[in-house]
């Protein structure tokens, strides 16, 4: 099977497994796992931040961050298609008692002008207190769209003027960073907290990082424990994350090139209405006949190819490190054959 449903489907290769099985470990709830500590220091340094916390998933890192930034009755501003709002089981309300002000914006991205009307006046008791802005780079629902770094800087400046923290859901931040040519430390300096997935394009089996100041991460450790995320000999999985950060970042460009190949093939087909312009490793194809999504998914499946139905009229294909050039050729052939 050629599995394009997600970049989460990858499995560790031999070298990654070797790194995992030979990792020195200890009890990480006691702070004694040398491999977890190494991963946290390595990633904090990489982003030019003080500290990092290894967590079970990207949902967990986002939810911990939000929990620290807001109080019950507060409000988070984010895109209406953002992961933190749409795909975390209502966690902002459930875990933090906060409401969400969702805003629009092109391809999963938001701008200062999208945010500005929704900053509530703190001296009027009618309104929830606006307490956080959260953005997603790259944007999943936006078809892997990358933020213009200048827009991020404008959002940061705006947040500063309102005294608001800025969180980055950077589940796929390395897909953005290998393309936007922005210095990683300068990029990271725009955010109060950053969530990074090791188990997406980077190819680790499990794990995400929450990155921020020492003070923030100290508090995050407590919330992680309360959320049931304190892990013991987690070094075995942290080793996979270290391996991924050291070996699998630059190769993301291969995934992006292959996604462009898929986009070009799709654009030649008369059953395709359009493709969200490909910027990274996510290809979202919009069908002419929007009711036929399941039919197309099944037809590809019969040819040994898995893709994801992605809402009305949309198919999602994601490239990742377990696909070969031959798989991409086979996919393009299948795209040409299907009607
Ligand atoms: C995958 C993803 C996450 C985290 O997902 P987990 O499955 O909980 O690791 C967060 N944000 C975005 C944009 C994602 O794509």
Description of the molecule:
The chain has 14 helices and 13 strands. The protein is α/β, with parallel strands linked by helices and 339 residues long. It has 2 domains: 234 residues, Type I PLP-dependent aspartate aminotransferase-like (Major domain) (Aspartate Aminotransferase, domain 2); 87 residues, Alpha-Beta Complex (Aspartate Aminotransferase, domain 1), CATH 3.90.1150. The protein has a 7-stranded mixed sheet with strand order 2-8-7-6-5-3-4, with helices on both faces. It has a 4-stranded antiparallel sheet with strand order 9-10-13-12, covered by helices on one side. α3 packs across α10 and α12 runs parallel beside α14. The model has no long low-confidence stretch (mean pLDDT 98). Bound molecules: pyridoxal-5'-phosphate. The site of pyridoxal-5'-phosphate has 12 residues, from α3. Pyridoxal-5'-phosphate binds next to α3.
């Amino acid at each position: 099977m050629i599995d394009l449903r997600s970049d989460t489907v990858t499995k560790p290769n031999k070298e990654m497994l070797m790194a995992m099985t030979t990792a020195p470990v200890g009890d990480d709830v006691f702070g004694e796992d040398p491999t977890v500590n190494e991963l946290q220091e390595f990633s904090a340094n990489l982003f030019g931040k003080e500290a990092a916390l290894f967590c079970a998933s990207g949902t967990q890192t986002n939810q911990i961050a939000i929990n620290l930034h807001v109080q019950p009755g507060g409000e988070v501003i984010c895109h209406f298609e953002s992961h933190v709002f749409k795909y975390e089981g209502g966690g902002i309300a459930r875990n933090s008692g906060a409401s969400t002000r969702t805003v629009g914006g092109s391809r999963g991205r938001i701008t200062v002008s999208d945010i500005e009307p929704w900053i509530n006046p703190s001296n009027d008791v009618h309104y929830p207190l606006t307490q956080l802005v959260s953005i997603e780079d790259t944007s999943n629902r936006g078809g892997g769209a990358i933020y213009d770094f200048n827009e991020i800087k404008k959002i940061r400046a705006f947040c500063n003027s309102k005294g608001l923290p800025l969180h980055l859901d950077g589940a796929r931040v390395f897909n953005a960073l290998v393309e936007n040519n922005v210095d990683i430390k300068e990029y990271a300096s725009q955010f109060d907290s950053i969530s990074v997935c090791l188990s997406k394009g980077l190819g680790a089996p499990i794990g995400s990082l929450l990155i921020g100041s020492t003070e923030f991460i100290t508090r995050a450790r407590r919330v992680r424990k309360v959320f049931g995320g304190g892990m013991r000999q987690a070094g075995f999985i942290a080793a996979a994350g270290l391996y991924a950060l050291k070996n699998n970042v630059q190769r993301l460009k291969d995934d992006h090139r292959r996604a462009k190949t898929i986009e070009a093939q799709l654009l030649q087909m008369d059953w395709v209405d359009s493709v969200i312009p490909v910027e990274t490793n996510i290809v979202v194809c919009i069908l002419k006949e929007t009711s036929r999504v399941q039919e197309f998914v099944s037809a590809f499946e019969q040819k040994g190819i898995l893709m994801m139905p992605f809402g009305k009229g949309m198919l999602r294909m994601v490239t990742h490190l377990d696909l070969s050039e031959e798989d991409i050729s086979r996919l393009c052939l299948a795209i040409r054959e299907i009607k």
